[in-house]
Specification:
alpha+beta; five-stranded antiparallel β-sheet; 7 strands
């Protein structure tokens, strides 16, 4: 079978050319070759995509915590024999969820005092004067509230302690002359986040450590 095909745009002379329809096993038809090329390219792209997705992700905004599968588990890697309430559990086990959720790193940790059944953690937000205090995860709401009030009273002498968990507190007076706010509850744990006013004097790490020790001493 032969198909007449106009050659170029020279239609005034009625020029034609012919091609022979290939048999069922012939690969010379231009449409067949083009189709195979397209499908081959798609198959190669899919194969490369599958290989790329199997590699571990690096960089970007991943919040995966070392030793966890998704960044939401607080299961620590390495030695997990630390007794409940120890500094190791505070800085490894509990730190996992906070690193994943907030991207913070611990700067100080302390063992719980009498009346507390869980560790006490102090955190510093990177590149800022903000810090977060965590009591948990085995502390009752009443015990956590006492720690919150003790810490806020230590920071702002004469200030009114926060009324309860989940409340907002805005302190504009105190020995540091700073403005603290934002009491949060994260992942079922009692979290106190004190946001330091950017216009106030920066809080030194030694001051943060002292505040943590004061809060622990007052909760017995």
């Amino acid at each position: 079978m032969e198909w007449p095909i106009l050659a170029g745009s020279d239609t005034s002379k009625g020029a034609t050319t012919t091609v022979t329809e290939p048999g069922p096993t012939t690969m010379s038809h231009p449409h067949t070759a083009r189709t195979l090329l397209v499908w081959g390219t798609l198959a190669l792209a899919l194969a490369l995509s599958a290989c790329g997705s199997a590699k571990p992700t690096r960089g970007g905004t991943s919040t995966a915590v070392p030793g966890t599968s998704s960044g939401t588990s607080a299961a620590p890697s390495g030695d997990t024999s630390a007794a409940p309430g120890t500094v190791d559990q505070c800085s490894v086990l509990i730190a996992g969820d906070l690193r994943a959720a907030l991207g913070v790193a611990p700067i100080e940790a302390g063992t719980p005092k009498e009346g507390l059944t869980g560790p006490f953690c102090l955190w510093k937000l990177p590149n800022s004067d903000s810090f977060t205090v965590e009591i948990g995860p085995y502390v009752s709401p009443a015990e956590a509230e006492r720690v919150f009030e003790s810490l806020l009273t230590s920071v702002h002498q004469g200030g009114t302690p926060v009324a309860g968990l989940g409340d907002k507190a805005d302190f504009t007076t105190g020995e540091l002359g700073a403005n603290f706010s934002d009491i949060l509850v994260l992942t079922g744990r009692s979290i106190l986040h004190l946001r330091h006013n950017a216009h106030a004097a920066p809080i030194a790490q030694a001051t943060l450590t002292e505040l943590a020790n004061k809060a622990l001493e007052q909760v017995k």
